[in-house]
Amino acid sequence: MERKTLKSILVIGGSGLVGNSLIKLASDDMKVFFTFCNSPTEIPNVKSFHIDLLDEKKSSISDLIKSLSPDVVVNTAALQSVDYCELNNQVADRLHVESTKEISDACADSSSKLIHFSSNFVFDGKKGSYKEDDLCNPISYYGKTRLEAEKIVLDSSSNNVILRTTVIYGWNKNSKFPNFVLER
Predict the structure, then answer these.
(1) How far apart are CA 169 and CA 97, in angstroms?
(2) pLDDT surpassing 90 at residue 71
(3) DSSP string of the chain?
(4) Cα–Cα dist 48/14, whole Å
């Protein structure tokens, strides 16, 4: 079977640690685009777009995906604080669930493969060493919205992929965890 050569990728949340790392890895081999919200980032030969996924009226993520029609869309955008999500349910719903629905629908319309970053917070933490087919049981609002987003992504296309991550850390000007540790 012949493998399809990927020609273009759109990274949603490209100014964050994961998104920025992906852009750097992909930019030598394909045409790369990315979105940012609060932290404009300049990367040579990579086109960026300012999109605020929390602003329902101004978010044009669907239009962007449809106009670029990339081979792959990687969604790394998420709120990083579980505690913030507990206190701001509507914001968590908007970013994790509603914007994921917009992204999934646009990817389906554009025949773009969607790779969606999720979280181990879809589990309750009682078992540990989870497998992808283990029963999800989120105990936080953050985990509940991440699980709901996963369902949207998987229901949208059998071609989509979910990546469940745990603590991601590294150095990036927007990295919360290393900066938190350094401040303490």
Answers:
(1) 24
(2) yes
(3) -PPPPP-EEEEETTTSHHHHHHHHHHTTTSEEEEEESS-----TT-EEEE--TT-TTT--HHHHHHHH--SEEEE------HHHHHH-HHHHIIIIIIHHHHHHHHHHHHT-EEEEEEEGGGS-SSS-S--TTSPP---SHHHHHHHHHHHHHHHH-TT-EEEEE-------TT-HHHHHHHH-
(4) 8
Residue 173 amino acid letter: K
Asked if residues 174 and 17 have their Cβ atoms less than 8 Å apart, the reply is yes
State the Cα–Cα distance between residues 20 and 14, nearest whole angstrom: 5
Whether the CA torsion 42, 107, 94, 163 is positive or negative: it is negative
Provide the percentage of residues in the chain whose pLDDT is more than 70: 86
Inter-CA distances, 67 with 60, 61, 160, Å? 11, 10, 20
Whole-prediction pTM value? 0.87
Structure tokens at 41: 């980032």
